[in-house]
Specification:
The chain contains 14 helices and four strands. With about 325 residues, the protein is mainly α. Strand 3 and strand 4 form a beta hairpin. Helix 9 crosses helix 10.
Length: about 325
């Protein structure tokens, strides 16, 4: 099913690309656009993940320079039965995360330093479990292809005025065609919204909650990330808005762009679904309230890193530290030491 969906997505994006080329340069422009689309298809499959990571200036980390973060991803990948993905950090104060890669064997997950600084250990684990769910569902190929094509279509539209102004380019629509192409390009984000189903996020939330074992951890994390994204801009995402659908929460700062690139379901609805899932898992009849860090501790979770210690260690404090990694989330030898 995912293979068919990806093939249909490629066909739709290629057709749109060729249509923009026709508006700019007629039949010749359409053929050039077809060649560019073919190259974009190949590039998207093999290199889109590298491009997305580069655009976000993500730095790969391991157990030496980001031991706790790496250990969380490693434990969750084992829990989900997935190969260990490449693990990245993004030096960005906005709490957020995404996954990319053409398949589970070539996957990568990335979290911002803001995520590690503002969320608890359990909440970070829930977020990374969500991203691993995307990897397991093979959503990452679709997501990266959409990001690459949307960016390419926008770029083609930006060049429309310069490429389409020549009378000798066999453009049957003249300046009207060029103007139409320039108008089409800003709506590339709407193609992203239509191509990437919002049910993908609900499914990743559900599976991520199963992987980490606690839906309320993810509910609490989504609430913190959404509030952080509203207050803290993400300049890299603003420069490349077609990547917005990759993140667990829309990273775009500003009402206009948020509406245009609204590829995520309502955070409140996602939290409500997770609360209902927690209620069903607990077998209770009352709606599950949104957890606080203290309540998460009192539940004595037994996530993939094992049960909470009982007698060997002293009792945990009533409230965990907001940032379990301290001032430096990457460890003593990290880039941001």
């Amino acid at each position: 099913m995912n293979t068919l969906r990806t093939a249909m997505l490629l066909a739709a994006m290629t057709a749109l690309f060729m249509g923009v080329g026709f508006l700019i340069g007629g039949s010749g422009g359409m053929m050039i656009a077809l060649l560019i689309a073919a190259g974009t298809n190949l590039f998207s499959y093999w290199n889109a993940d590298k491009m997305v990571l580069s655009m976000n200036r993500a730095v790969e980390v391991d157990e030496k320079n980001a031991p706790e973060y790496y250990a969380i991803v490693q434990a969750l990948a084992k829990q989900a039965g997935l190969p260990m993905p490449r693990t990245y950090l993004i030096d960005n104060p906005q709490p957020n995360a995404f996954a990319t890669g053409r398949n589970p064997q070539n996957a990568a997950v990335a979290a911002s330093t803001g995520l590690l600084q503002r969320l608890t250990h359990e909440e970070v684990a829930a977020v990374m479990a969500h991203e691993l769910a995307h990897v397991q569902h093979r959503d990452t190929l679709t997501m990266t292809i959409v990001a690459t094509f949307a960016g390419a279509i926008s770029m083609l539209g930006n060049f429309a005025f310069f490429l389409g102004g020549n009378r000798d380019n066999n453009n049957p629509f003249g300046f009207v065609g060029v103007l139409a192409a320039m108008i089409v390009a800003p709506f590339a984000a709407m193609i992203v919204q239509m191509a990437v189903s919002r049910t993908r996020e609900y499914e990743a939330d559900r599976r991520g909650a199963e992987i980490c074992g606690h839906p309320l951890w993810l509910a609490s994390a989504l609430d913190k990330i959404a509030r952080g994204a509203e207050r803290i801009p993400n300049p890299d995402a603003e420069r490349n808005p077609a990547m917005a659908h990759l993140f667990i929460i829309n990273p775009l700062h500003g009402e206009r762009m948020d509406n245009l690139f609204s590829t995520h379901p309502s955070t409140e609805n996602r939290i409500a679904a997770l609360q209902e899932m927690a209620r069903q898992m607990a077998g209770g009849t009352q709606a599950a309230p949104r957890p606080t860090p203290r309540q998460a501790e009192e539940q004595q979770p037994s996530g993939p890193w094992g049960p909470a210690p009982q007698a060997e260690q002293p009792a945990e404090p009533e409230r965990p530290k907001a940032n379990p990694w301290g001032r430096n989330p990457t460890g003593p030898k990290g880039r941001w030491s």
